[in-house]
Write a structure and sequence with these properties.
Enzyme class: transferase
Number of domains: 2
EC number: 2.1.1.386
Strand order of the largest sheet: 6-7-5-4-1-2-3-8
Strand content: 15-25%
Distance between the termini: 63 Å
Helix content: 25-40%
Bound molecules: S-adenosyl-L-homocysteine
Organism: Zalophus californianus
CATH class of the largest domain: Alpha Beta
Number of helices: 10
Order of helices and strands: HEHEHEEHEHEEEHHEEHHHEE
Structural class: alpha/beta
Family: Belongs to the methyltransferase superfamily. HEN1 family.
Protein name: Small RNA 2'-O-methyltransferase
């Protein structure tokens, strides 16, 4: 965690004349990247963003391999205005399915309303949200987010008012802001909340101040709260029951599920297509070697190696494995060779049994696509590709 660049007074701090301050990248992006890095570092799976607005943060998070549940809540959720489509899997999601499932749901609702579907998350983010809450909602916010939703982590970002004198305008940064806190105000509030709900909190920020004005701190102040694993102290409010009674208040405005290798249909299709690709490459090399030969003999294939994207060690392993061969018009690929191809190997976790069973199942269920007038034959020890 970065050190907060706090100083107690601005007496020794030269605040440069007011001019447009340019952040590179823009400070809103820096806030999103901050969350992205946190998610990566902790391998977080279930994340909710309160006040998701145009869903840019959720859209960035959907690319993380570890993320499996993304939820957005916004009082003014209008997903069709910005095209909820940016959160959908798209064609690419079907061509190369994710390793793990991913479900994304957007709700219309308030961050100060309790809804049991928000309980049990790894992380709840509130990026530039709290300053939009009036005093009544701000008072309810900790009990709902920390007491009831009770996630493993909470990230709250809010403007640092000490930075404001550097901006040309002397008003709040957004007309909808109800307040903008200095660092002491934010940290006092955050420490009180953390203590009450048994979290620890650390402070950092994004948007560096210009040279000479370091004492004002970051443009955006950020509190990262982490739930304490130890039992709550007597003075703290007890954690909610394991099984929170169902309470659905939010309105679902958008939901989507991604194809993934955890779903047997996409797993089998991917395995088939990776196998077909590997066999296709073996076959073309084999045919090149056959060009000079016209006989029906079994032809051993020494050079039938996929060259691209393989390490020396993988190439050597392929060379040592049983070789593809042909008998008449049939081209045989021993499964022992097919399974060495890294993508195939990764999919079946090195299990020959799994590879054989799934390819055979595919044949029965006609799920392996017949491509380029070639069809599959599976025997006990080999998969063969036969011209039809
Ligand atoms: N997090 C976004 C948007 C910040 S603007 C970003 O960083 O870009 C604040 C957002 O909070 C707006 O989209 C607004 O509609 C939403 N909002 C305001 N009050 C809210 C409340 N009580 N509950 C949920 N969302 C709220």
């Amino acid at each position: 965690m970065e050190e907060n660049k706090q100083c107690n007074s601005m007496d020794n701090c030269e605040v440069p004349s007011k001019k447009v301050i340019e952040f590179k990248p823009p400070v809103y992006e820096q806030r999103y990247y901050f969350v992205k890095n946190l998610v990566n570092r902790h391998g977080l799976r279930k994340i909710a963003d309160l006040g998701f607005s145009d869903a840019t943060l959720l859209w960035m998070l959907k690319y993380h391999r570890c993320v499996q549940y993304l939820v957005g809540v916004d009082i003014a959720a209008r997903p069709f205005e910005w095209g909820g489509g940016r959160l959908s899997p798209g064609v690419g999601g079907y061509i190369i399915p994710r390793e793990l499932d991913l479900t994304i749901t957007l709700y219309r609702g308030s961050a100060v309303q309790k809804d049991s579907r928000l309980c049990g998350f790894d992380l709840i983010t509130c990026i530039e949200l709290i300053e939009h809450l009036d005093s009544e909602d701000l008072a309810k916010f900790p009990e709902v987010v920390f007491g009831y939703f009770s996630p493993g982590m909470v990230v709250i970002s809010t403007p640092n008012s000490e930075f404001n004198p550097l901006f040309p305008a002397s008003t709040f940064r957004d007309p909808d802001h109800r307040f903008e806190w200095n660092r002491t105000q934010f940290q006092t509030w955050a420490f009180d909340v953390a203590k009450l709900y048994n979290y620890s909190v650390e402070f950092t920020g994004v948007g560096d101040p210009p040279a000479g004005a370091e004492c004002v701190g970051y443009c955006t102040q950020i509190g990262v709260f982490q739930k304490n694993i130890a039992k709550p102290t007597e003075s703290s409010i007890s954690e909610p029951e394991e099984h929170v009674p169902e309470e659905h208040v939010y309105e679902v405005v958008y939901t989507t599920s991604y194809p993934s290798l955890q779903q047997s249909k996409y797993f089998r299709l991917t395995l088939s297509s990776e196998s077909v690709k590997a066999i296709g490459l073996m076959k073309s090399r084999f045919l090149r070697g056959l060009r000079k030969r016209e006989d029906d003999q079994v032809v051993p294939l020494g050079s039938c190696t996929l060259q691209f994207g393989l390490t020396e060690a993988q190439r050597a392993e392929i060379e040592q494995s049983p070789k593809p061969y042909s008998v008449g018009e049939k081209f045989y690929v021993p499964l022992e060779r097919l399974i060495i191809y890294p993508k195939v190997n990764h999919l079946v976790v090195g299990s020959m049994e799994k590879l054989r069973t799934i390819l055979a199942e595919g044949l029965r269920q006609k799920e392996i696509k017949v491509r380029c007038r070639w069809s599959w034959l599976i025997t006990k020890h080999k998969a063969s590709l036969m011209s039809i």
